[in-house]
Design goal:
Radius of gyration of chain B: 18 Å
Number of strands of chain A: 6
Shape of chain B: flat
Strand content of chain A: 5-15%
Structural class of chain A: alpha/beta
Largest sheet of chain A: 6 strands, parallel
Strand content of chain B: under 5%
Largest sheet of chain B: none
Order of helices and strands of chain A: HHHHHHHHHHHHEHHEHEHEHEEH
Distance between the termini of chain A: 72 Å
Order of helices and strands of chain B: HHHH
Oligomer: heterodimer
Number of helices of chain B: 4
Distance between the termini of chain B: 52 Å
Chain lengths: ~450, ~100
């Protein structure tokens, strides 16, 4: 039975490797996800099996309780994941990541208290750092969730010192726990560690600008991975190490890819350099803009041959993805070609826009990446920018002093005409002015994206 | 539990090293389209930490005591992480496949 369990674990590890591989190719991704689920179930069942058979008596009641808890958790996960709209996907990933962190923290607490103060150095170190990382991820993810929804406005005074203090104090407490100093105050030190970790998560996440939230989520995801891997060493479970390292690798690679796409470095993101400049160089007023109406856009658009849509976070906020699809259908009937160009970091997460457009049923082939899109824009007649700002900001190319200088952008100015659909003239997440809006061939349609698109479609149908 | 998974720290180091290599090779070439599903899938996998909670729950005698309640709660929210993560990933990926069937 124990041999069977170990073979099960091996098979689960194999499923994880193949599943992750398949998750990276568009055609096989869905099956890859199923394989991951299979691997997870197999890993759990095998572990329960091995654990039960190594004990003197098979703890049937414990197994029953455990399975019930797992069933309840699965149901809650199912409910929560289907209650959110797809526009809220980044929030949801953040929420679940926080749950994972808290789970790791609790498991760490149980482990360390059952050893009391007699655990060996390595175990105590692993458990106490898993408490720290776990609770820090929990509160950090929660702040990220609030910031993504634009609900978090709090500014902590001396935030950087608080981040540093909570980190230093936590390391000190971990040191106390490992060296068994002050064993009589065990519970108190443990509670202190939990509180400090939570505080550290809050201040760490607060210092990161709203536009960098995807990077924060990716970093926190990497933390949970590292946490799982080190907990795997404590529990002597290879599958935990394997899965944890995989997640860490994903976290690290995605973090760096996103940083490159946003032309920033992890150091800048964490120490908030972008933030400071953004505050001082906040967007000034625009002097010469050309406003337009949806009627005018509709009369223009019908004369075009090639139309490009550049979506941004505003599209997700306005839930305008279905209206995009309608516009595309209407234009196709009039033999007008319409393509979408998606910047790698459009929206709040890489691939966020792709998911939304896919939800609206827009064909994969009509969505272009940055390179192909910029080529296509050269021959495009009209470019509709929907709720995007920083990813089309021309100062990234023209203004040496701009904080986003050097960031690759969607070169919308190449199109013969540009129409920007935006709710207002406010700055994007980088907090800077966009010279594109003042260009001669740029027109602004300052209204809700969904309404604008719907009225354009209505006009076209008449 | 230590007798069943015979794993010395050195073995652990080898496992970690090899996994890092495999992980980097697999994830490096994933197109940006799949980054969100990948992140949420990876997030679901990291919930495998519940295995630790499960081991703890099986070791301790059941009862209304702090360790049991804490690890039970840990397993519960960990499972929410796992199942929620997988369902969200599934929902996203289904979107991609839908139109492929239509086309």
């Amino acid at each position: 039975m124990i041999l069977g369990g170990n073979i099960g674990i091996l098979a689960a590890a194999f499923s994880f490797v193949i599943g992750m591989m398949m998750l990276g190719t568009p055609d096989k991704a869905e099956r890859g996800n199923r394989l991951l689920v299979f691997g997870m179930i197999l890993a759990l069942v095998s572990t329960i099996g091995i654990q039960s058979f190594t004990q003197v008596e098979i703890p049937w009641s414990n197994i029953g309780v455990l399975l019930t808890i797992i069933a309840i958790g699965t149901l809650i996960g199912l409910k929560v994941s289907y209650r959110f709209e797809l526009t809220k996907m980044p929030e949801l990933v953040s929420l679940f990541n926080g749950f994972g962190g808290a789970a790791a923290g609790l498991i760490g607490i149980v482990g360390i208290s059952s050893d009391e103060m007699h655990g060996d150095l390595v175990s105590t170190l692993i458990l106490s750092s898993s408490i720290f990382l776990g609770f820090m991820t929990f509160s950090g993810s929660y702040i990220a969730l609030l910031k993504l929804g634009g609900k978090y406005k709090m500014r902590i005074p001396n935030n950087r010192s608080l981040t540093f203090f909570t980190l230093a104090a936590s390391i000190l407490i971990i040191g106390l726990l490992v060296t068994h100093i002050g064993a009589e105050l065990f519970i108190l030190t443990l509670v202190g560690l939990v509180i400090l970790s939570l505080l550290h998560g809050v201040s760490f996440a607060s210092s990161i600008g709203g536009g960098d939230m995807p990077i924060l989520i990716s970093v926190l995801n990497g933390f949970t991975g590292a946490l799982t891997a080190i907990a795997g060493i404590y529990f002597g479970s290879t599958i935990m190490i394997l899965a944890g390292v995989f997640v860490t690798a994903t976290g690290i690679i995605l973090t760096f890819q996103m940083c490159t796409a946003m032309n920033t470095t992890l150091k800048k993101v964490i120490f908030g350099a972008t933030n400071l400049i953004a505050d001082s160089a906040a967007s000034e007023g625009y002097s010469s803009i050309h406003e337009t109406t949806s009627t005018k856009v509709a009369t223009d658009i019908i004369l075009m041959k090639k139309v490009v849509i550049v979506p941004g976070f505003g599209l997700a906020v306005a839930k305008a993805q279905k209206a995009c699809r309608e516009l595309k259908n209407t234009l196709e009937q009039a033999n007008i070609e319409m393509k979408f160009v998606i910047h790698p970091v459009a929206g709040r997460m890489p691939g966020h826009m792709n998911v939304l457009l896919a939800e609206a049923g827009i064909d994969y082939a009509d969505i272009l990446d940055l390179d192909k899109g910029n080529q296509y824009l050269e021959e495009a007649d009209l470019c509709l920018i929907i709720g995007a700002n920083d990813v089309v900001n021309t100062s990234a190319e023209d203004d040496q002093d701009s904080i986003i200088h050097g960031m690759p952008i969607v070169q919308t100015y190449k199109a013969k005409k540009v129409v920007v659909i935006k709710r207002g003239l406010g700055a994007g997440y980088a907090g800077i002015k966009n010279p594109l809006f003042e260009k001669e061939n740029t027109q602004l349609l300052l209204t809700d994206a969904k309404q604008a698109l719907e009225s354009i479609v209505d006009e076209l149908k008449q | 539990m230590q007798e069943t998974f015979i794993l010395t720290p050195l073995d652990g180091a080898y496992v970690i090293l090899l996994c890092i290599l495999i992980g980097i090779i697999i994830i490096k070439n994933v197109p940006p389209v799949l980054h969100t599903p990948l992140m949420s899938g990876a997030n679901a996998i990291s919930g495998i930490i519940i295995i630790g909670g499960a081991i703890q729950l099986l070791q301790h005698p059941m009862g209304f005591n702090a360790p049991t309640i804490l690890s039970a709660f840990g397993v519960l929210i960990g499972t929410i992480n796992v199942s929620g993560g997988f369902f969200v990933t599934h929902r996203m990926l289904k979107m991609f496949n839908q139109k492929k069937r239509k086309a």
